[in-house]
Amino acid sequence: MKKLFAMILAAALVLGLAACGGSSAPAATTAAPAKSDAAPAPAADAGAAVTSDTVWPDGSTVYIDVPAKAGGGTDLYTRYLTQALGELYPKVNFVVTNYDTTEVGREHAKNADPDGKTLVIHHGGWFLEYCAGSSNVNPKEDFETVGILNMGGPQAIIAKPNAPYKNFKELGEYIAAHPGEVVIGCSLGGASHATLFSIVDSLGEGYTDMVNWVQCGSEADKLTQTASASIDIANCSIPNAQAYEADGKLTILGTLGPSVATLDNMSELVGLQLGDSFKTTKEQGLDVAWDSCYYVWAPKGTPEDVCRAINEAICKATEVQSFIDGNNSMATYIGAVDYDTVQATIEDEWSRMSALSTAMGLNVR
C-alpha cells in the first residue's frame, strides 16, 4: 500500500492545499443570484462570434465564488485574478464571495445560471474530497472546467512554537519515539489530509498510524491552533509561515509542493532569500512532492463557446503584472493553458486523485 501511495503521489501533476470550514454564512455581502427556472439566454445573437466582451459586456457583474474563508490560498489567488481581470475589463464589476463552509459555496455555484457570469475557483483537492465522500458536489460532472490559474505552490509545514523537532527527519524520529502523541490538524478527507499524510508516510512504515489526525480546515484555524499548541503540525502558505515565524509563534519544518520547487527558485519568486527552514521535502531527502492546479469552473450547461471565451480571458489575466506579482509572493508557479488542454488536465487529475483516495482507504465512490 505504501509503495502504491508513493507511486501515485510521485506521478501527481496538479496541486491544492487551501482548505475551508466553519459557519455557513458567506463572508461577502453580495452573492450571485440563484439559478432561475427559465432556460439561459444565448450569450450572443445567432451566428455572432462569442468573445469575453459579449459574455461580459460593459456594465455587467461577474460573480466568483470562493468556497473558503478570506485570507487563505484560494481566496488570495482569486483576488489576484479579479484584480487582473479588472485591469483588462475596467467596466465590468467582478465580485468575490467567500463561503466559510466549503460545500455551501460549491452548491451555490453549481445552482447558478450557466451564463458565464458565475464562476467558482478551487484547487484539485476537491476531487479527493468528492471521492472520499466529504463533498457531494462533483467538480467534474456538475461543472464545466474553463481554466487553470496556476500549478500551485509549496505549502509550509508548520509545528507549534519550540517544537522538539526542527525538520522532517527529526519529526520522524520523534513520532517513532512518542507514538500517539503528535496531533496533526488538516481538512480530513481533503487535500491537506492527503499531503500531510504523504509526508508522514514517507518518514517510515506505519508512521501514519502513530499520529492523531484531527479536523482543522481553514488556514486561519491552522495558524492559531498551531501557535497556541492546540495541535502540533499543520500546513499554511509561505507568507503566513514567514510572518508567524518572525514573531516566534511557530516552527517551520520545511515545505511540500510541486516537484519543480526548490529553496532557490521559491526564494526567487518571493524576492527574498528564504531560510533553510523552508527547504522542500525533496531537498530534505524525502521522496515525495505534491503538484496540483487551481481551477476555474462554470456551472454545468454553460455553452462551450462561452467557456472558451472565458478561458481566453483567464489566460490573458495571468499575463498581467499584478497577477504575476501576487503569485510570485506566494511562490506559486503560474500555469494557465488553453481550453482543450484544460480538459485533458482535469481528466488526468481526476483519475489520479481517485486512485490516491483508494490507496489511502478513503474512496467511497
Percent strand: 15-25%
Q: What spatial form do the alpha-carbon principal axes imply? A: globular
What is the number of E strands? 10
Give the integer mean of the pLDDT values. 88
CATH architecture of the largest domain: 3-Layer(aba) Sandwich
Rg estimate, integer Å: 20 Å
- Give a short account of the largest sheet: 5 strands, mixed
Low-confidence stretches: 1-30
Structural class: alpha/beta
Neighbour order of strands in the largest sheet? 2-1-3-10-4
Tell me the CATH topology of the largest domain: D-Maltodextrin-Binding Protein, domain 2
Distance between termini? Answer: 19 Å
CATH class of the largest domain: Alpha Beta
What is the CATH superfamily label of the largest domain? Bordetella uptake gene, domain 1
Fraction of residues in helix: 25-40%
Helix count, per DSSP? 13
Secondary-structure element string: HHEHEHEHEEHEHEHEHEHEHHH
The domain count comes to 2
What topology does this entry show?
Layout: H1 2-11, H2 52-55, E1 61-66, H3 73-88, E2 93-98, H4 102-110, E3 118-123, H5 125-132, E4 143-150, E5 155-159, H6 168-177, E6 183-186, H7 191-203, E7 212-215, H8 219-227, E8 233-236, H9 238-246, E9 251-256, H10 263-270, E10 294-299, H11 304-317, H12 321-329, H13 339-359
Parallel strand pairs: 1-2, 1-3, 6-7
Antiparallel strand pairs: 3-10, 4-10, 5-8, 5-9
